[in-house]
Specification:
The protein contains 24 helices and 21 strands. It has 711 residues and is α/β, with parallel strands linked by helices.
Length: 711
C-alpha cells in the first residue's frame, strides 16, 4: 500500500546509496548481478592454502596485541593445527580484541599471503567457530562505500524474491525463439544470485555460463526492440520524395559530367543507396561512413544535386568553420557554375559572419534562392528559415549533439512559412508531420557490432574503398629525443616541394601550456628551417587570422603548418605528404587515425611520424602503447575502430548517442556477436507477431532508465 506523503520517513544513508545506484524497483534489484563470488561452503587447512588464495579457516587464537610498528595495528596469531597465521588489522574496534581473545576458536575468511615472516591475513572477517557453512557461493555485488555487502545482498535478494513473486520475470520470449539450450529467465536469475556450490567459478566470472548468456540475450533483444520501434515510428513520418532526375540539363547530370575523376565502386554503391532512399516519401536517417580520404564529400554533393533537381533546398553542416569553408569552396567549385544559369546559389552561414552579410544570406535562404546552404551550427539557429528544406547533411556527425540534430529535423516540420506542396497534397502521407531527409557522415568507422546495436535505428552506407592511385601511408614511431632526424626529413620533403603538418596535442589541464608547446615548436621549426614559411594555427586565434593561415597552406606557399587543435585540421591538401604528431601518446586512437588521414591524399608517398615521449615515469602506459602499436600495424580505419573498441569500450564511440540509448550492462559487443545477431533477427518477429510481449520486454529492461531520469 502506498505510504501517504506526510508519513514518509527520510531515507537512510544506505537507502540513498541504493537509489544512487539506480536500484529503485524490485526488478532493478534483481538485475543487479554479482560481480564475483566467494566460496564460504567449505573450510580449508592453512597448510593446503597457497599464496593469494581467498580461504575460510577455523583456528585457535594464540596471541593478540596492539603493536605500533610500523603503525598502530592489531596483530594476532592463530593456529589451525597444520600451520600458524598472523592476522593484521589497521582499523579495529575494541570488540575485535574481544573476539580475538587468546584461546578462542574463530572462523576467519580472507586472502592468505605467504610472506617472508610466515603466513599472514590482512583484515580477515572474524566469526566464532562452529557455525553452519554456506550451502551456495556467496555473491559479491557492485556497491559503494555507504552500502555494506550485507545490506545490499539483503536488498537484492529481497528484490529478487518480490520480483519473482509478482511475475516480473515471466518469460517474454516465446520458447521456440530462444537461442538453443537457453536457460529460463527466472531460473538464470536465481542461479546467478544463489549459484550451486560446485559450479565453475571461472564460467561464472567470465560470463560464459548459460545463466549469464540468457541475461545478455534478454538485454540485447531489448535494445534491438527499442531501436526497431523508433525506426518504425519514423516510417510513419512524411518527407519530400526527392526523385532522381535523368534530365541531361539537371544539376545532377551536369555535376557528374564535371567531376574530374571516376567514382569508385564503393562510392557508386553508396550514391545509389542514398539516391533510392531520398526518393521515398519517408525521412531517411542514414549514416555514411568511410575512412578519412575515402571521398565522402562528392557523395554528399551528388545527394545535394538530386535534392536541388527535385526543387528542394539542401543544408550541409560541418563542426568547425574551417571545415565548413572547405566544403563550401569545394561545393561552390562544383555546383556554382551549374546553379547560376538556373538562378540559384550557394549560401554560407557561420557564427563569425558580419551582420550585414549574414542578413543577406538569411534572405536568400528564406526566399529559396539558395539551393544549397553550407555552414557551421549557425545553420540551425532559430533565425534561419528555409523555404523548402529537403535534405540535411551533417559532416563529422559525432561532433554534433542530439539536440542539434533534432533542431535540423524541425527546420522543415515546424516552418510556418513552409509552402503547402500542391503536388503532394494527394499523397498518402498528407497530414503527417514532415521532416527533411538526414544524411550523417562520419570518418570514424563504427565497428560492425556497434552499428548493429547502438546504431540499429539508422541505415548505414559504407565506403570501404579508397580512390585509386593512393600510396599507403608509412607510419613510424619515433622517440621525442630524435627530433633532429625528423627535421632533417622535413627538409628533404620541402626540397621536393611537399608540405608538412606538425600537430601538437591539446593539453586539457592548461590552455596556456598547450599554446606554449605549439609556439615553442613553431619557433624551433622557424629557426631550423630558414627561408621556409612555417605557419601556426591554434584555437584562440581570431577567425580571420586562422583563415589567412589556412589559405596560405592550401595554396601551397606555406611549407609547414604547426597546429594545436585537431579540430582545425579537417582539411584536404593533397600536396601534404608528411604528418608529424607530437606527444602522440596523448591522443586517442581514432584521433590519430584521423590526423594521419590528412596526408596520403595525393599520389606522393606519404608518411606519418608519431613522436612519443616517455614522460616522468620513463615508460608509456599500456593503453598508449596499444594505441601506438595499432597505428603502426594498420592503415585500415575499420581495423583501427575495432581495436579502439577493445581498448576503450563502446562509450567513447557513442558520444552524444550514449545519452539516448541505454548502455549495455551485461553484453559485451566484442564477444557476444552471435547473441547480437540472434537479437537482430528476432526483433522484427517480436514486434509483428508478439507486440504485447515485446512491449513488456522493453519496459522491463529499459523502464528503469526512464524512471531514473524522471526522479
Ligand atoms: P573524406 O571522405 O575524408 O571526406 P574527401 O571527400 O575529402 O574525403 O576526399 C578526399 C580526396 O579524394 C579529395 O581530394 C577528393 O576530391 C578526392 N576524391 C574523392 N573521390 C575520388 C575518386 N573517386 N577518385 C579520385 N579522387 C577522389
Ligand atoms: Mg570529409
Amino acid at each position: 500500500m502506498p505510504t501517504p506523503l506526510t508519513d514518509r520517513k527520510p531515507l537512510s544513508a544506505p537507502q540513498k546509496a541504493l537509489r544512487k545506484l539506480g536500484l529503485l524497483r524490485p526488478v532493478d534489484m534483481a538485475l543487479h548481478l554479482p560481480m564475483r563470488y566467494e566460496d564460504e561452503t567449505q573450510l580449508v587447512k592453512l597448510a593446503d592454502s597457497r599464496d593469494g588464495d581467498t580461504v575460510q579457516i577455523e583456528a585457535v587464537v594464540k596471541s593478540c596485541q596492539v603493536v605500533f610498528k610500523p603503525r598502530r595495528q592489531l596483530q594476532a596469531v592463530v593456529d589451525d593445527g597444520t600451520d600458524t597465521c598472523t592476522l593484521r588489522f589497521f582499523n579495529f574496534y575494541p570488540n575485535m580484541q574481544k573476539a580475538l581473545e587468546v584461546g578462542r576458536q574463530v572462523r576467519l575468511r580472507g586472502e592468505v599471503r605467504g610472506g617472508f615472516m610466515g603466513r599472514t591475513m590482512m583484515h580477515p572477517t572474524v566469526q566464532a567457530a562452529g557455525g553452519s557453512l554456506a550451502t551456495a557461493l556467496t555473491p559479491v555485488y557492485p556497491s559503494t562505500a555507504e552500502l555494506p555487502q550485507a545490506y545490499i545482498r539483503k536488498a537484492v535478494l529481497g528484490g529478487l524474491a518480490l520480483a519473482l513473486r509478482s511475475h516480473a520475470f515471466d518469460e517474454t520470449i516465446p520458447t521456440q525463439h530462444l537461442p538453443p539450450h537457453s536457460w529460463g529467465l527466472a531460473q538464470s536469475l536465481q542461479f546467478l544470485h544463489h549459484p550451486a556450490p560446485h559450479v565453475s567459478l571461472a564460467q561464472l566470472e567470465d560470463h560464459t555460463h548459460p545463466a549469464w548468456q540468457r541475461l545478455k540475450a534478454e538485454e540485447l533483444l531489448a535494445q534491438q526492440l527499442s531501436q526497431l520501434q523508433s525506426k518504425r515510428e519514423r516510417q510513419l513520418l512524411n518527407a519530400p520524395a526527392l526523385a532522381h532526375s535523368h534530365e541531361p540539363q539537371g544539376v545532377l547530370a551536369q555535376l557528374h559530367a564535371l567531376l574530374p575523376f571516376q567514382l569508385t565502386q564503393a562510392q557508386q554503391r553508396v550514391v545509389k543507396e542514398i539516391s533510392q532512399d531520398v526518393a521515398r516519401a519517408v525521412p531517411m536517417h542514414r549514416l555514411l561512413q568511410g575512412d578519412v580520404g575515402s571521398g565522402k564529400t562528392v557523395v554528399a554533393a551528388l545527394a545535394a544535386a538530386q535534392c536541388i533537381d527535385a526543387g528542394w533546398q539542401c543544408a550541409l553542416m560541418a563542426p568547425t568553420e574551417i571545415l565548413a569553408e572547405q566544403h563550401f569552396t569545394k561545393l561552390v567549385g562544383w555546383l556554382a557554375p551549374v546553379l547560376a544559369p538556373l538562378g540559384l546559389q550557394v549560401a554560407w552561414l557561420t557564427g563569425s559572419q558580419k551582420k550585414k552579410e549574414r542578413d543577406a544570406m538569411l534572405a536568400v535562404v528564406a526566399s529559396g534562392q539558395a539551393a544549397l546552404v553550407v555552414g557551421t551550427h549557425a545553420v540551425i539557429q532559430d533565425k534561419v528559415q528555409f523555404k523548402r528544406l529537403g535534405l540535411a547533411i551533417i559532416d563529422e556527425q559525432h561532433r554534433f549533439g542530439v539536440a542539434q540534430r533534432l533542431a535540423l529535423r524541425q527546420k522543415l516540420s515546424d516552418e510556418p512559412t513552409n509552402p503547402v506542396d500542391d503536388n503532394h497534397s494527394h499523397d498518402a502521407h498528407a497530414g503527417k508531420p514532415r521532416e527533411p531527409h538526414l544524411l550523417m557522415m562520419s570518418a570514424t568507422p563504427i565497428p560492425r557490432t556497434l552499428a548493429m546495436s547502438y546504431y540499429a535505428d539508422l541505415d548505414v552506407s559504407t565506403i570501404d574503398e579508397l580512390p585509386p592511385g593512393r600510396t599507403p601511408i608509412v607510419t613510424k614511431l619515433v622517440a621525442d629525443t630524435r627530433r633532429d632526424e625528423i627535421i632533417e626529413r622535413i627538409r628533404v620533403q620541402l626540397q621536393e616541394r611537399r608540405q608538412i603538418y606538425w600537430v601538437c596535442p591539446l593539453i586539457e589541464e592548461s590552455e596556456a601550456l598547450d599554446l606554449r608547446n605549439a609556439t615553442d615548436t613553431h619557433q624551433a621549426l622557424c629557426e631550423a628551417l630558414p627561408g621556409v614559411m612555417v605557419g601556426l594555427l591554434h584555437s584562440r586565434m581570431p577567425q580571420a587570422e586562422k583563415k589567412a593561415v589556412m589559405s596560405l597552406f592550401v595554396q601551397g606557399q606555406m611549407g609547414v603548418l604547426v597546429s594545436t587543435t585537431v579540430i582545425e585540421v579537417g582539411v584536404d591538401v593533397p600536396n601534404a605528404s608528411l604528418m608529424v604528431i607530437e606527444h602522440a601518446e596523448r591522443f586517442g586512437l581514432s584521433q590519430l587515425h584521423q590526423l594521419r588521414g590528412r596526408v596520403g591524399r595525393g599520389a606522393a608517398a606519404s608518411a606519418c611520424v608519431l613522436l612519443y615521449s616517455l614522460g616522468e615515469h620513463g615508460r608509456l602506459s599500456d593503453t598508449a602503447r596499444a594505441r601506438l602499436k595499432a597505428m603502426s600495424d594498420t592503415n585500415d580505419g575499420f581495423e583501427i575502430a575495432r581495436r579502439d573498441l577493445e581498448i576503450r569500450g563502446p562509450g567513447e564511440f557513442l558520444g552524444s548517442r550514449q545519452s539516448g540509448a541505454a548502455m549495455l550492462r551485461f553484453a559485451d559487443l566484442s564477444v557476444d556477436t552471435e547473441l547480437l545477431a540472434w537479437a537482430q533477427r528476432l526483433a522484427p518477429t517480436m514486434l509483428d507477431a508478439y507486440p504485447d510481449l515485446a512491449q513488456r520486454h522493453v519496459q522491463r529492461w529499459l523502464g528503469a532508465k526512464s524512471d531514473f531520469l524522471k526522479a
